[in-house]
Structures are given as C-alpha cells and as structure tokens.
C-alpha cells in the first residue's frame, strides 16, 4: 500500500488579524509524488510551505507529515523531525555566510545522523556527496569553493541551496520558488537534477513556482485560489 506523505484536514491559518490567510479542507500527497503548487502573489504559498515544514502551526485543523502530527510534537521533536526528513530550498536561500560553500551543503548531514548515513551510502562520504551534487548542478570549478557564499551570484546560491536540500536524501523536499533566479539553461539543469534525485531516493517533492512552463514535469498540480471565506484554498 502506498504511504501517505502529507495529509491536511480542515486547516485554517491567519496571521493574527482574524482574516483567514489559508483555508484548506483536504489535501493529500503520497510518498514519492511530486506536486507543483501555484497561486497569485500573496495567496499564501510560502505560508503553506512553512506549515508543511512545521515552522508555522495552523489555527485549527491538522497537518500530518509522514504520519507525524505536528500539533502533538514538542519543539525539540519538530526540530529533529525536520533535520532528519525534510530538505528546504528557500526563496532567500538562507546560506550561512560564515561557512564555506562545501560546509553549507554538508550542514544538514551534520545535524542528522540519518541523512549523514544516507549520504555516505550513496556517495562514500558527505563531502564527496556535496561535490558530486554541486558538479551535477554546474558548480564544479574549484575556484568557486574558495569564495564567500555571499559573493556567489544569486543563481549560484540557489543551486548551492538545492544541493544542501538534496544531500542525504530526505523523504520530503520543500522548494519555494527555487528557479526564480536561474536562466533557462540553468533552470532546466536544476529541475532535471532535482527531479532525478527525488526519483532516485523516492523523495516527495513539494515545489512552489510562478513558472507555469514547469508544471508538466510534475505528477500532481495544485493551485491556491480564493475561497468563500476570504482566504485561499488548495
Ligand atoms: N510574517 C507575517 N506577518 C503577517 N502577515 C504575513 C506574514 N508573512 C506573510 N504574511 C501575509 O500572508 C499572506 C500570504 O503571504 P505568503 O508570503 O505566504 O504568500 P505567497 O503566495 O508566498 O506570495 P509570493 O508569491 O508573493 O511570494 C500575504 O497577505 C502576506 O502579507
């Protein structure tokens, strides 16, 4: 039987002004599926991703990820769960400026023994895994490794952030507008790697983008649309 990756039931979320931002009666995603989520600016795509990552909790209703109900977990349990099971590609990349490029990519494997073990199994070592993924993303030049991550181009930072999310094959990858800063060639290379890595590791991919031309690469599509109560619904 197929395992469920994400279940949302009767979710309502607002930012404190009593106007619903999101109102989602039902949403389900199976393990290994890849969903493309779109919606107008301000419709709550990033808010939804933050809830799926356990960073924000809904007002009412529930979110279950890999059969874990976030509302019943302590903050420390949530941190551990995130580190072990979820890879994030953020809109603002969130690279750490005081770490080298390679250390940024390896970071999640330092926090999660599970991801570290999977990276070692796949690539021989965490560092070799980081280098292999960076090379596949077109970042193989040794000179780049010496650079401050803040001195990399936006597109390069986006790809470093993708390698960091993928390394150690987390079960869920959450990507918020990951191709927005890439040219067409880098975008296609990036998406091909992301999809093939998810396929290889059986990861579930939750991908938010404005770029509708990418939709056809995904097995599932969802759209945030205005709902009757004023918020947006999937
Ligand atoms: N920290 C916050 N405090 C209060 N309101 C917020 C906060 N973050 C987002 N919002 C509001 O929640 C709504 C949804 O924002 P969100 O960033 O999730 O939308 P989005 O669909 O990702 O937008 P975009 O496509 O422009 O990135 C917006 O009205 C936004 O102003």
UniProtKB/TrEMBL annotation:
GO molecular function, one term: ATP binding
UniProt domain ABC transporter: residue ranges: 6-234
PROSITE patterns found in the cross-reference section: ABC_TRANSPORTER_2
Pfam families in the record: ABC_tran
Residue stretches spanning the membrane: none
Keyword terms of this UniProt record: ATP-binding, Nucleotide-binding, Transport
Similarity-based family: Belongs to the ABC transporter superfamily.
Protein name, entry field: ABC transporter ATP-binding protein
């Amino acid at each position: 039987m197929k395992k469920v990756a994400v279940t949302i039931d009767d979710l309502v979320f607002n930012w404190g002004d009593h106007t619903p931002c999101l109102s989602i009666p039902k949403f389900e995603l199976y393990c290994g599926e890849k969903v493309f989520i779109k919606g107008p600016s301000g419709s709550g795509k990033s808010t939804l991703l933050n809830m799926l990552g356990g960073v924000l909790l809904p007002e009412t209703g529930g979110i279950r990820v890999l059969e874990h109900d976030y509302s019943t977990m302590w903050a420390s349990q949530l941190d551990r769960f995130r580190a072990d099971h979820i890879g994030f590609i953020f809109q603002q990349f969130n690279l750490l400026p005081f770490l080298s490029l390679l250390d940024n990519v390896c970071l999640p494997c330092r926090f999660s023994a599970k991801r570290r073990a999977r990276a070692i199994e796949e690539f021989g070592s965490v560092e070799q895994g980081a280098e292999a993924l960076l090379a596949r993303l077109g970042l193989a030049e040794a000179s780049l490794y010496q650079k401050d991550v803040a001195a990399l181009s936006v597109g390069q930072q986006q790809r470093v952030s993708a390698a960091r999310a993928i390394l150690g094959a987390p079960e869920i990858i959450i990507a918020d507008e990951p191709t927005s800063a890439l040219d067409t060639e880098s975008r296609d290379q990036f998406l091909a790697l992301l999809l093939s890595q998810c396929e290889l590791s059986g990861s579930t991919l939750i991908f938010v983008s404005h770029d509708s031309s990418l939709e056809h690469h995904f097995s599932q599509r969802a759209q945030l649309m205005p709902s009757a109560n004023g918020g947006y619904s999937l």
